[in-house]
Amino acid sequence: MGSLGFWRLARNDPDWIACVDPDGTEYRAEDLLARCNRVVHGLRDLGLQPGDGICGLVPNGVDGLILYLAALQAGWYYTPINWHLTGPEIGYIVADSEAKAFFVHERYAAEGARGADEAGLGPRRRFAFGEVPGFRGFDELVAGQPDTLPENRTNGATMHYTSGTTGRPKGVRRRLAGIDPDDSAELLTFLLSFFGFTPGPPNAHLVTSPNYHTAVTQFGGSALNMGHTLVYMDRWDAEEALRLIERYRVTNTHMVPTHFKRLISLPEDVRKRYDVSSMRWAIHAAAPCPVPLKQAMLDWWGDCIWEYYAATEGGGTIASPQDWREHPGTVGKAWPISELLIVDDDGNEVPRGTPGTIYMKMAGVSFEYKGDPEKTKANQLEDYFTVGDIGYLTEDGFLFLSDRKADMIISGGANIYPAEIENEILIHPKVADVAVFGIPDDEWGEQIKAVVEPAEGVPPGPELAEEILASLDGRLARMKWPKSFDFIEQMPREPNGKLLKRKLRDPYWKDRESAI
């Protein structure tokens, strides 16, 4: 141990540009180090101890990064909160995480204040970036505090809340190792080593999605701990992403297939306007990626498109560009420190090539859903866990995803995977986005419904539906064709690309005794 970790790197190279805010403001490592040190001193004066938690309701950028770095060197749990949540939902997380301090950006003042009230958090523990009524200014916390490295430093961790398909979100909490923060940070960079990342400038990492997502925090934080500059986007915009890649010679990023679709949909002259040759690791995950879409990205950006499959809870797979070219559609093989198990509904391992529920485990890593031992146990099979995805393994160990268990359609006794249908529809040039799910059918149990967001300038209606169906001929068995289409102006997706399918599906099931 001894060459990586933000605090070590910042002391060795104080002038390194550690991050660039969405407005273009650049921050030197020395400045970030001083600010995160002051936060630690200020919160310790408030009585925070190792093992305590802090929450942040902040946009992408330097403010959240300072909270993250402070927590990770003071032995605290840092929980970044989804800024699309309502006051009561925010309050639940603040209370459930037992946060001893809550930081809110003025952009989210109204719901942040409601959340603090809901959690019963006292005024001394509320801090604002900007103006938030009833909150103390962030400057008040750090005023007069030294910028020196705190004593008795010990590693902290992030505690992200899983969005979950049922019930309230749960915090994924890991036991703290009680080791030097830089050594802990260096250990966290193991994930990037699977992709072949190299440390130090002039590498730069483009943050394309909200930092409240586990993968965004992990990849961005790990890149920073390897000495890469973090370049933040405030919100996703395809052409802006290309501009930033060229401007900062970005070498790595983390994306989702929706980002790829938006990039590929740009006019060819716009795509050719920007130099993306600096990109070496464009990593994607979070949703199945249609084979032609990924192929188009590889043709454009070259062999820098890497894929993985993982979960907040730990464990996963990785597919290099070469792996994927040899096994189109795969999400890769298990990480060297991870194992996969595919089982049937009775928990028995299924033969290779047979779809089943995917269970994973990661060597030496355990977790609990905070305050919910029953949920922790329900999602486990011995020391493996599942998030409810369905897939199969090939004879040589490559994993292919079928769908989420919760999204599977059972029509006439046959299992139908919406992701497969969505992938085929999404590559239609007149389709910007699509969601497929089951709706009630008295004869078949469920029938297939497709909700389509037409591409810009394309009129919705029966003609478009017929054109989409015709394009499926010979590519998809007719039993998998949608029975009906709805059209929507904008698909309800989280900014990380995750489709909020329940919002579309629930109205069809509201009068039924039970949703399948």
Automatic annotation (TrEMBL):
Q: Which domain of life is it from?
A: Bacteria
What family is it from? Belongs to the ATP-dependent AMP-binding enzyme family.
Residue stretches making up the AMP-binding enzyme C-terminal domain: 420-498
Q: What is the designated name of this protein?
A: Fatty-acid--CoA ligase FadD4
User: A single Gene Ontology molecular function, please?
Assistant: ligase activity
InterPro entries on file: AMP-bd_C, AMP-bd_C_sf, AMP-binding_CS, AMP-dep_synth/lig_dom, ANL_N_sf
Q: Which residues form the AMP-dependent synthetase/ligase domain?
A: 7-367
Q: Which Gene3D superfamilies match?
A: 3.30.300.30, N-terminal domain of ligase-like
Give positions of region: Disordered: 145-170
Query: Ranges of Polar residues compositional bias?
Result: 151-166
Per UniProt, which keywords does this protein have? Answer: Ligase
